[in-house]
Amino acid sequence: MKKRTLAMMMAALMLSTALTGCKGKYAASSQDTAAASAEAGTDAASDTAKTGTPKDTLVCAIVEDMTSMDPQETNRATNWAVQRQMYNHLVHENPDGSVDPELATEWEWLDDLTLRMKLRDDVYFHNGVQFTAKDVLFMIQKAKTTSISASTYEAFDADNTKIVDDFTIDIKLFHPYAAIRRI
User: Fold this and answer.
1) SS3 157
2) What does the alpha-carbon distance between residue 153 and residue 72 come to, in Å, rounded to a whole number?
3) pLDDT in the model for residue 164
4) What ranges in 127-175 are assigned the alpha helix state H?
5) DSSP string, 64-96
6) pTM exceeds cut of 0.70
């Protein structure tokens, strides 16, 4: 009997607490509501005028500010979430482990330590410059010298990685490296 009474009292207390938040101090008059709406509309219009028209503005909610737009300068999840929307990888590894082409169209192992990648010829940077094997080599060389990404790229032999032609690169490794598909 005591348990049932206690349960009923707790339920009544929880219900009264929940209902307390259902009504404000006073009911707003239609004039108050109209004035607030007009003021909010004016503020929104002035904000739009300052930052651009809605078609030119992308608003994203993220947990914290980005620290860098350079994917090799940071390993923070917030940066990665935004950068993944902006930059492509050579290949995309799916959750099931299968690999799809992204910037590389084909890849083959020439030997245990050499991966040949053929690149797309229809990719251009935002400034109009075409993406080539030189850009992949630059990325590997830069990654090896950056404190954040150096450990990820420690298996890469940048000095012996060779550009075969504008859209083909032979990536050399010091030792087998399973995560190479994630570059």
Assistant:
1) coil
2) 10
3) 98
4) 133-145
5) S--S-S-TTS---HHHHHHHHHH---SEEE-TT
6) no
Q: What is the pLDDT of residues 94-153, one digit of tens each?
A: 889 888 999 999 999 999 999 999 999 999 998 999 999 999 999 888 888 876 666 778
* Alpha carbons 102 and 123: distance in angstroms, whole number: 10
Q: Which CATH architecture has domain 89-182?
A: Alpha-Beta Complex (3.90)
The CA-based dihedral angle spanning residues 80, 84, 85, 91, taken in that order and rounded to the nearest 10 degrees = 180
Please give the single-letter amino acid code of residue 144. Answer: K
- What are the residue boundaries of the structural domains of the chain, listed by start? 49-87, 89-182
CA distance 12 to 129: 69
Q: Give the angle 134-138-142 at the CA atoms, nearest 5°.
A: 175
Please list, in sequence order, all residues whose beta carbon lies within 8 angstroms of the beta carbon of residue 101, skipping any fewer than 6 positions away: 91, 92, 120
